[in-house]
Amino acid sequence: MTSIKVENLFGGYSGEPVLTDVSFTVEQGEFFGILGPNGSGKTTLLKMISGVLPFLKGSIFVGDRSIQSFSAKELAQVIAVLSQHSSQAFSYTVKETVALGRYAHKKGLFQTWSQKDEEVVQEVMQWTGIEKFQEQSLEFLSGGEKQRVFLAQALAQEPEILLLDEPTNHLDLSYQKDLLDLLHKWTREKGLTIISIFHDINLAGLYCDRILLLEDGKVIKNDTPKDVLTENTIQQVFKTKIEMHQHPKVPAPLMVLLPDDALENGGTEEVTENHVGVFDDYILLQSPMMLKTMSSGVIGSGIGWYNTFINRYVDKSYHSRNYREELKRFVVEEGLDPSNTVGMMTAVKMENVQYKQYLDKDFSILVVVTAGVGNAVDVSRSVEHPFVYRPGTINTWIIVNGRLSEEAFIQSIITATEAKVKALAELQIPDQETGTIATGTSTDSILIAATQKGKYQEFAGTITPLGKLIGKGVYECTLEAIQKSLKRSPDL
Amino acid sequence: MAASILLVAAILIGISIGTVTVPIGDIVKIIGSRLFNISHVNVDPMYTTIVWNIRFPRVVLAGLVGASLAIAGAAFQGLLKNPLADPYTLGVSSGASVGAVLTIFLHITIPVIGSYTLPFLSILFALITIIAVLIFAKRIDRSMKVETIILTGVIFSSFLSAFISLMIALTGDELRQIVSWLMGSVSMRGWEYIQIILPFFLIGSFLLLMNGNELNAMSFGEERAQHLGVNVKRRKMLVLTAGSILTGAAVAVSGTIGFVGLVIPHLTRLLWGPDHKHLLPLSMLTGSAFLILADLTARTVISPTELPIGVITSLIGAPVFAAILIRNKRKGGER
């Protein structure tokens, strides 16, 4: 059971103090990250823990022994180090290099190569995936391969604690992930303790159990990634503008840099009715800029940045198992870029579209609705419906010329939905199955998009300025679109 | 194995060839009879004198000097991760020379050690020089680049050579002795010189051979070696001392013979790989064979005049030095 305990550590290079009163403990099996701007003392700290740099004051305990009581060999049996830069003057083979990791376990004047040495070396070469080129000379390997060789060398020491100085520095993306996945697994399975300096804040957030944040040689924070990697802390320590989000797939913080010119409210361009084109078999909205979009479309659904929005008419008999791919192909055929496109489908004729721009004092929205109510459903009694597809869909688009918070996106959807329900109630659209008033159709889609420039809209509830505009716009457009479709084909 | 055969062949050829050629069979007989105390051997007594009193000690001395310089060079190169390091380029040989010249110039004899005063002072000056060179190199450039160390070595070499020249200018009758000694030679030395170098040779090479693994680790950098569990401070001092002992003793008996410690380890590394556990002993074998053959060339090529042996080694060594430098630079560029 080996933990590392650092107490009131002071020290640096030749009289110049780098670290001031640093204390922390790392438990066995922890993946412990060290973060900090350049010159904050990360490497100095790691050098002291690895025993190569003496310190002025304080103490470091490895297990229950002071680090100063270890001989170099004893320490190397417990702690291994993977440095940022590794150099070699002569062309050792991969295996010779890895085998040096066994040095700490050798005894006596004549250090013989034992069966166990060979086994360990072969094993670590397998783990790191370098056994294929074990007879090759080091100088012919790529930076990433070399880094793995030195990792294998460190692991051949069979350490209980592994110190890493920006281990992924020279590695390709896939190797970064592989290496950190592997190390993380070992902390869990083998109880390996890892103390690692990170350069990449997001990587640290993904893999570390705890993070020590250093600034000017002092500990600013020592806590879980979630508590260390907050927008305020990181902005203060790293002195740059960032935004903290959340990783979409795992519960980890995700930091994003904000380029200066993205923050300027450059351009007064807006999305207007003029950007909408109605064609025989589709409606196309091409925005002059990328819009942050939240939608339930067929392609480009979810949250993302898009500038092309298409609502395509398909015949009632349309049937494609792979409708997503089919729609993508259609988009490509029309000369549009599917990666920038949100696409929806409807069996409603395109002439039944209703779109209009609504203006407030300092912002505006554009609402586009296509509606058919052939399969209108009363949501409160939808359990009585058989699962049968009938054509007839209400697709609602709301484009906001303004800057929306995430809450505002969600509230916009609520507000728009309420307005739609109201429109259906107003027109007494029945649910054919139950005979009650319908609240929508079974296949409705919605899209909220915002330029993210101009006036900031934090909320979009029904009585906020944005909510008011959405309520009015969606209600009116839905009403008119349904009326148009009823006029043309009353059965829909 | 190949290296041992090479050495034996070099010894036999080295003894055999000269103004009088001695058949190899007779050489074996003569040496065998001396070593195993057999009194009656059917060999020309003139051959016996030539072989036992002149050529054999000369070849053995050349071999010991070659082995000392080569293993010292290999160790310096590993320690400093510097393929250009050798006792000569680091200025260690010059340092040892200053010690030797001082001894001769001032007629110093330290009581108790007597005839070992010369190697003792050579070794002492060699050690002081290498430590001074390393401290200076570190002052100039913390990362101790290959070129920085060599440049510092050259500066020290020049300074020490100037110092030696000064002493020569001040001497009267010792002049010829010093000059011929300075050029580097193993001729007319006899068995007493072998007695001088042998103990130092044994101690120095034993110390280095014990540090093969440590040198391997240190050729990845001192910090890396420390991480791997090497007591870098102690091992470094040990290697520097052993290297200085070997260089100092070699210089004391044969003057400055350049580039052996550079060329031989390099060649050995090319043939057998960089692992110091093999590199060190193999460098010794090839180094002694090389110097025996170089000495043979030196005394036969424009016979009856003898060339200083250092001329031969430098003629071979300097171009190799240049080649390694270019190769190294190129590798550096790609990194």
UniProtKB/TrEMBL annotation, chain A:
Protein name per Swiss-Prot or TrEMBL: Iron(III) dicitrate transport system
Domain ABC transporter: 4-241
CDD domains: ABC_Iron-Siderophores_B12_Hemin
Taxonomic lineage of the native organism: Bacteria, Bacillati, Bacillota, Bacilli, Bacillales
Keyword Transcription attributed: no
InterPro entries: AAA+_ATPase, ABC_transporter-like_ATP-bd, ABC_transporter-like_CS, AdoCbi_amidolase, P-loop_NTPase
Top-level taxon of origin: Bacteria
Organism per entry: Caldibacillus thermoamylovorans
Keywords of this entry: ATP-binding, Nucleotide-binding, Translocase, Transport
From TrEMBL, chain B:
GO cellular component: plasma membrane
A GO BP entry: siderophore-iron import into cell
TM region(s), chain numbering: 56-76, 88-110, 116-137, 149-170, 190-210, 238-264, 307-326
Keywords: Cell membrane, Membrane, Transmembrane, Transmembrane helix, Transport
Main location: membrane
InterPro entries, per the entry: ABC_BtuC-like, ABC_transptr_permease_BtuC
Record-linked Gene3D superfamilies: ABC transporter involved in vitamin B12 uptake, BtuC
Membership in a protein family: Belongs to the binding-protein-dependent transport system permease family. FecCD subfamily.
Protein's name in the database: Putative ABC transporter permease protein YvrB
Organism from which the protein derives: Caldibacillus thermoamylovorans
